[in-house]
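Justification of resources, computational component.

The compute hours requested in this renewal are based largely on the per-chain cost of generating structure records like the one below. Each record pairs the submitted sequence with a full structure-token output. That output is archived, and it is also reused by downstream analysis tasks.
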Amino acid sequence: MEFYLSRPPYIEAKVELVKSPFMDSYPTMFKVYSLEDLLARKMVTLHNRMEGKDMYDLFHALNMEFEMNRFLKALELTIKFYHIEGDFWGDLVSRLSQAKKNARQIGNSTNHFIPKTLRPNWEELVESLRFRIEELKRVVEIRDV
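The structure output for this chain reads:
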């Protein structure tokens, strides 16, 4: 859930009836962002704070089907909203390379959020995520040519 005094930009959001697996009797209407918007927000969040829960979410979300053009537009809007300057992709890859050195600590601080049967090898997850983001960086560079 997000609360802002200013309204962050997004490509698409729908109001959906959301049922909690914890409380069957109280479904609620929420604004739900598109997958592309969620990916963009999670990518910027990872850039800004580099926490295991963001790595885990992004790792799995990037394996879902999404529209690249919509994602890149959402990412552009999100980067602008948060006033991120410089080499976003390069910084993200560099930070993930550093995070791999701390994979054990990242796992220790994150595993309690994840069911035991779904806990990853954090070193492999960070390295796979870094590789996937490098692929995205190359796609962006090709599109910019």
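Residues 34-144 form one domain. The chain has a mean pLDDT of 90.
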